[in-house]
Amino acid sequence: MRLAGHGSVRRHRGGAGIAVAAALLGGATACGSTEAGAGADTKPRTTAEAETKPGTPAEAVARAAERTTDIASLRYRVTGILPEHGKIRAEAAMTTRPTAMRMDLTGWGPTEDKALEVRFTDGVIYAEGDTAAIGAPADKKWLSAGPAVWGRGAAENNTYRVLPGPLEASPLAQSTLLTGAKKVGEVGAETVEGSGTTHYRGTVTTKSLRAARTAARDKATRELRTSSLDQFMMLGIEETLTVDLWVDDDGRAKRYRLRGETYALQDGRMVDGGPLDLTVTLLDVDRPVTVEPPAAEDTVDLAERVDGATEG
Length: 312
Description:
outer membrane lipoprotein receptor (LolB), chain A; 13 strands; disordered N terminus
């Protein structure tokens, strides 16, 4: 597992802390880079269906982005390929007011088949780990770091990268990226997790996202598009990101897929970071979600141990 970020958009307090966190949560696992398909069933859209579907593809995508602001809680699934790493899979749930998250992440921990549990609540991020690596008692099973931020984009989140960068973002924010495309096309009608959806596709760049933000006609739209730009920066995309979005019959995002080549910083210069191919499926919306912190007696403060040791 890799905790060091790629690209120049992210700065993390305590560089030594990142290296120690990597050791605590397990070494990098080499996974095969296979195609991470979206897994949707495609069927042609009939002329009658096309005529009754309101608005243009760009308008449908914009409406889906607006509807993310109404979502209070969400269960979701993540599959795909991370740059310089390989395949991952996550089952997660989150709330938006207040922000909280719990996740079981496979492929990022010591083994490819054992899930790593991560939680974020009350401004603290927690992760299972080998706390003995930082001299903590053996009965401490959880690492914590705070005050931290989860669900934001390219900023100092103080999370020590216990999660890969693309998974530090809220899926609700990431699902709005297609609003920054110059042109959005309709692929067709598809079934996702038993729900009828319309599949849209486009490409986005930093330039197109900035242009979309400038063109926003009101404050709410501008804030959404600013968030989209922030999410793009977090991904470390070298040039162009291909975005697929599946919108269900209620006008909400049901699934999205992000594909692109990334960059990394190596010895002060930018190098190829490898492919990103991430598919996120939004499952139960507005169902009760509870995130509890681990028991205090089972937790050790990562920042206190790592930063304290570095400063000393």
